[in-house]
Amino acid sequence: MRVLVTGGAGFIGSHLVDALASRGDEVVVIDDLTTGYADNIHPAARLAEGDVADRDAVDAALAGTEVVFHLAAARAVLRSVQQPRATDRTNTAGTLNVLESAREAGVRRVISTSSSSVYGGAVVVPTLESAPLVPRSPYAVSKLAGEHYARVYWELHRMETVSLRLFNVFGPRQRPDSQYAAVVPLFIDALTSGHIPEVHGDGRQSRDFTYVDDTVAAYLAASQAPAEKCAGRVYNVAGGREYSLLELLAALETILGVHLPPRHVDARPGDVRRSRADCAAAATGLGWVAKVGFEEGLARTVGWFVQR
Ligand SMILES: NC(=O)c1ccc[n+]([C@@H]2O[C@H](COP(=O)([O-])OP(=O)(O)OC[C@H]3O[C@@H](n4cnc5c(N)ncnc54)[C@H](O)[C@@H]3O)[C@@H](O)[C@H]2O)c1
């Protein structure tokens, strides 16, 4: 089967490309390499360097495609506050562009990528997909807009769409060297280079950390589940457990055999206090459950960092 992966040079997208190439799919990647890297891409896949908001670039990359995995995005929440237009162009207009070109090209299914940020700090934890959605950043607004566009393309045009709300993904290839880096690579980088890890606030805020192989398995499941179960729907994709940042740090210290008491810095304004997904819908609709334990995923991630 021929598939297109948008954002396939990025952290999650490149792992998905590996899995698709391994199962024998013909994989095309469209990526503008703003935060992705060409050398992340599996040698059997073809890179079409381009912008997902550019109609001609997406049309050209889509020829002959049966399933689209849409992961390309400006994914930094803080950057979206500083540069909302750029975020909206890539995430909202880019998603609409991918959906419209896919419809015109006769694509059967588009799996689109949303985020736990659409909940904006849910009151009820574990959080169901039906919880109130209160996006609190331009990034989160753009992700929610993308979900609605995906649903509308199923309802209006019967192009099968599935949106996945990802929660705090971590694993190999996630980079610590950006001002918008995620907490897992930042902590590993600090601990392995002898720098004091920085913790925002008291460190008791929790996240639902998801190992990247589990996230990739959810995309594969979403590409294979029967349309009558999943088309037009949105699913939480998460480890389904909750760990505080201090627990994360302690787990990494155990794996690495080091102990560096953190420096507490100002809490981030608007930081969500608790985050944990209810993933029962994905089990029913997609036949997917997370399999990799938190410590196991961290050990694999540390192994990659240390070898790099
Ligand atoms: N990492 C997480 O914890 C997390 C959580 C929730 C949702 N997500 C979503 O998962 C997806 C992948 O995120 P990631 O963590 O792998 O980030 P990433 O930055 O590594 O990957 C995004 C990729 O999209 C590409 N890209 C950006 N703008 C583009 C454009 N205009 N045209 C073409 N390509 C473009 C980048 O070059 C990069 O390769 C994103 O949609 C993100 O919003 C990630």
Strand content: 15-25%
Radius of gyration based on Cα positions: 19 Å
Strand order of the largest sheet: 3-2-1-4-5-6-11
What is the number of E strands? 13
Q: Give the biggest beta sheet.
A: 7 strands, parallel
Number of helices: 11
Oligomer: single chain
User: What's the CATH superfamily of the domain at 2-167 and 219-239, by name?
Assistant: NAD(P)-binding Rossmann-like Domain
Write down the overall mean pLDDT.
97
Provide the CATH architecture of the domain at 2-167 and 219-239: 3-Layer(aba) Sandwich
Description:
Helix 1 packs across helix 7 and helix 4 packs parallel to helix 5 (138-157). This protein is an alpha/beta fold. It contains eleven helices and 13 strands. The longest helix is centred in the N-terminal third of the chain and has 21 residues, at 84-104. The chain is globular and about 55 Å long. The chain starts with a strand and ends with a helix. It has a domain at 2-167 and 219-239: NAD(P)-binding Rossmann-like Domain (Rossmann fold, 3-Layer(aba) Sandwich). It has helices at 11-22, 55-62, 77-82, 84-104, 138-157, 183-193, 212-224, 227-230, 245-256, 280-286, 294-307, and strands at 2-6, 26-31, 46-49, 67-70, 109-115, 160-166, 169-170, 198-200, 206-207, 210-211, 233-237, 243-244, 263-265. The site of nicotinamide-adenine-dinucleotide has 29 residues, from helix 1, strand 2, helix 4 and strand 5.
